[in-house]
Amino acid sequence: MLKNYLRFAGVALVALAFITLSRPGPSKAQHNATETYAITNARIVTVAGPAIEKGTVVIRDGLILSVGANVTPPADARTIDGAGLTVYPGLIDASTNLGMPQPSPTPGVGGGRGQFQFPGGPSPMASALNSTQPAGLQPEIMAADYLRPGGDQIEAERTAGITTALTAPRAGIFIGQSALINLAGNTPQEMIVRSPVALHIGFTPLRNGSYPGSLMGVFSAIRQMLLDAQRYQEAQKIYARSPRGVRRPEQDKSLEALLPVLNRELPVVMYADRERDILRAIELAQEFKLRAIIAGGEEAWKVADRLSEAQIAVLLSLNFPRRTTAASPEADAEPLRILRARVEAPKCAARLAAARVKFALQSGGMTAIDDFRANAAKAVENGLASDEAIKAMTMTAAEILNAADRLGSIETGKIANLTITRGNLLDRTARIAYVFIDGRQIDLRPGAAPASSPSASPSPTATPDASPTPPAHTVHTR
Predict the structure, then answer these.
(1) What's the pTM value of the predicted model, to 2 decimals?
(2) CA torsion, points 335, 382, 352, 365, in degrees to nearest 10?
(3) Pairing of strands 268-272, 292-296
(4) What is the pLDDT of residues 390-431, one digit of tens each?
(5) How far is CA 58 from CA 78, 365, 410, in A?
């Protein structure tokens, strides 16, 4: 009997050991998310209120636990001495294609229906299953379904101090529905802050030989689909009220995706740089009573009064026009329009602010992401108040993207996304010292940032600049 008991006990111990070894432990992301940090003795730009000249920010479990001048760090906090540093809310890039499938030269992408050309080269169009519409005209496409974590472009944005981005599919007329993502995480689920955020619409004709192949055709196709969606919604309502004796309406996932737009539950981001296209976008929004947002907006200053009257916000591109030809006596003179655009682009933000147009800042497909802060500084040099520039990269961006309850300012309970600099954020000599995303300290890679992917916002191509090397700092553990 004793022998049988020992044999049973041995089997039980082996089974217990197997269960213990096979049980998954906490992931690295989970472990990091539970860490507590305290940044002390730092200047804190909360954005939601006055700056704290010398204070402490405590973050725990991925959230801001406390912030203030008289905050005592918890005993278990990893303390960073912030003397000489300034803490800002994590910067938000308000229009990107980060994490979306990369451009491909292969023809016929998107269900075999061809390709859509976007600035920077050919880009694959996402295609939904069982859609009634061809690729490029499928509003049901969700960025969240195509999101891929990691990559050089996401890492470059983080190194530039950007913690959050709005990302949308790369191509199409009805481009698809965007997601607001934090730029850290091992899975799409860890990255997504909000989805969907908005339906995105582009005004560039399809370049695959199919309809619509002209600007007039683009607006006709958009209007027709919105009108079809109105009729579809009415048919669905009639059938729901009294289905007996009524033929069942066919299901249409593309038209179904437009119903939240028509019901003003989901805003529409329309890509437009030229004055004429912005005016057309305003008229389209007013015709269908859409909650419109303009992305790009290079000439938005020309229609600032119309935008203000219609209460349409702008995701303003910081990809300012640059000289594209060599400055030599033999080079052809640049067109007057290009010369004027180079002068006027840095003034646009100040003009929108003066007209009380709400705006956020976005990278616009710039080839060097360090231009994001550098060109925001140029906007300040051209009349934009520095605090308005910082708001446009933080709190105002969060407000436009309907995420101000969780992002955009340093306040208790919000997501612990922080951009910490040595020097003021918009100074040319400022360097990114630390970046926190979801309460986790991000490793910053020194060296030049790689070129970012072409944005869905049609913008001139920028010239890359050298990326500053962030200084190393020591984290002291208490």
Answers:
(1) 0.82
(2) 60
(3) parallel
(4) 999 999 999 999 999 999 999 999 999 999 999 999 999 999
(5) 10, 34, 10
